Amino acid sequence: MVSKTVREKVFKLTQELERPLDLIQHLPFRIAVVSNLLALNRDWHIRSLSDLEPRELRVFLNIGSYMPIKAADIAYQSRLDSYTVSRAVKKLQAAKMIEVEADPKHRNVKNLRLSEQGKALYSELVPAIEQRSDTLEGVLTSQEREQFYRIIEKLENKAEQILAEQALSMIEQGNEPPADQKEVIRWFRKGKKE
Among 47-56, 87-96, 114-123, where is mean pLDDT lowest? Predict the structure, then answer.
């Protein structure tokens, strides 16, 4: 049980329903709230450096950090669906932030890398993002930070397992899975092999 917060004092659970969901004590909701607060486009300084939307910014940072990288690997690494990554790649390419090149080993596979313009933006964004991260992590001791990363990994793996098992169950019932559910299953199976 989380200790009483200001929000709990302000937001009282409704009496109009038999079992209202206590969002303050609901882990996925709380993680989503923190995620909303941490969205890079909500940071005014980062927004002043780039007009990229959150989706494009996330894909852009993945390309800069791991280039050359395939779009499918960005989807897996960040757990974005391939459609979202594809749309971001098109926008980044149109903005001349990235370049797409054929993979030397597999001609039908495309690798993504930052253009010179993209490298310039990346070099401006990274210090701002690192400063933000350092400030945020400053509330944790090194032991708490290590523990947090272990816990986050456990939660990510469990969330992926839940989604994959739900998708596999729906397939067993004769349903045709949408593309994003196929990806969840593929990620889950890939994670089990690693």
Answer: 47-56
CA distances from 154 to 11, 83, 114, 189 (A): 30, 26, 32, 16
Is 41 within 8 Å of 53 (Cβ atoms)? Answer: yes
Provide the whole-model pTM. 0.82
Domain of residue 79, residue span: 50-135
Sequence-ordered alpha helix ranges (H) in the chain? 6-10, 27-38, 44-49, 54-66, 71-78, 82-94, 116-137, 142-172, 179-193
Average pLDDT over residues 67-93: 93
- What is the spatial distance between Cα 187 and Cα 35, in angstroms, rounded to a whole number? 21
Residue with tokens 């397939």: 171
| Sequence letter at residue 33 | V
pLDDT at position 121 over 90? yes
Q: Tell me: pLDDT of 96 over 60.
A: yes
Per-residue model confidence (pLDDT) at position 3: 58
| Pair 28, 64 in one domain | no
Q: Is residue 1 part of a domain?
A: no
**Together in a domain, 55 and 120:** yes
Task: Tell me: do 118 and 158 sit in the same domain.
Answer: no
Number of domains forming the structure of the chain: 3
